[in-house]
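Sequence, please.
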């Protein structure tokens, strides 16, 4: 919650107040790329000691905090102050779609990421932390790459295609687990990354683009809360279900639930925001 409050004020959207589409792209791409590069770098640092990645992260966070507090008021467009997450009534329908899509984008990504490294280690008989980090990073690096390549796509097209690709990624992940296929899993990571990147980029663009100029920070903070909940709640759900059903059945159940949620969000998006039934290329 607190990181969402800070993100609303210090995010690239606030820095690009006069170019909200650029701010949205920077927000989605830097978040995704950072989340993807982090495990890769951490895996390399962990070869020296498991403490090193945490020490490096603490040092980077400390440096970032110093820079954030030293930003002049002009860089943010106004003097910094804590921002309470808030969505103006006039844009709540569009925000509900954007927040829901972002929730699902991170939910699917983290369900896959939570299980993929151990699966790769088991199939390759390799417990090297570099391999685990690279496996985790692959999905989100693909996501960031797709965002840069397709940065010109409008929000609605990106969300529509992203949700459809996420459904394909979920199907591939379940199939890879049942077939015991490492190549299929690696392809699934790339496909899921593409879907996550498009869905998150489109959701970020819609949420920030619909916000009034003076309330982008409040809307951004609410949006990040939706995103963080998507990255956490479904993974916890898998863990709780696994205690009763076993891991395979729990993953299948949550994958089915997320697939249904993606399809429902597509329908809701068409009704509320006019998302076309088919992407118009």
């Amino acid at each position: 919650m607190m990181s969402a409050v800070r993100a609303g004020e210090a995010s690239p959207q606030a820095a690009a107040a006069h170019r909200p589409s650029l701010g949205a792209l920077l927000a989605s791409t830097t978040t995704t790329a950072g989340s993807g590069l982090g495990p890769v770098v951490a895996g390399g640092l962990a070869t020296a000691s498991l403490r090193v990645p945490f020490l490096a992260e603490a040092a980077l966070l400390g440096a970032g905090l110093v820079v954030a507090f030293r930003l002049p008021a002009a860089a943010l467009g106004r003097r910094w102050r804590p921002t309470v997450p808030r969505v103006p009534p006039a844009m709540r329908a569009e925000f509900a779609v954007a927040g829901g899509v972002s929730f699902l984008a991170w939910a699917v990504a983290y369900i896959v990421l939570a299980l993929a490294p151990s699966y790769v280690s088991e199939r390759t008989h390799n417990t090297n932390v570099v391999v685990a980090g690279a496996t985790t990073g692959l999905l989100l690096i693909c996501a960031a790459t797709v965002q840069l390549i397709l940065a010109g796509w409008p929000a609605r097209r990106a969300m529509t295609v992203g949700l459809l690709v996420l459904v394909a990624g979920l199907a591939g992940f379940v199939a890879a687990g049942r077939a015991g296929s490492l190549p299929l899993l690696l392809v699934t990571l790339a496909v899921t990354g593409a879907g996550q990147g498009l869905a998150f980029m489109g959701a970020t663009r819609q949420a920030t683009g619909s916000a009034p100029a003076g309330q982008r920070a409040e809307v951004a903070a609410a949006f990040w809360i939706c995103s963080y909940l998507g990255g956490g709640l479904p993974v916890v759900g898998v863990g709780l279900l696994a205690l009763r059903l076993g891991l395979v059945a729990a993953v299948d159940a949550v994958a089915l639930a997320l697939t249904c949620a993606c399809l429902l969000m597509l329908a809701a998006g068409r009704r509320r925001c006019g998302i076309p039934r088919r992407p118009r290329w």
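Confidence is low (pLDDT under 50) at residues 1-18, 274-281.
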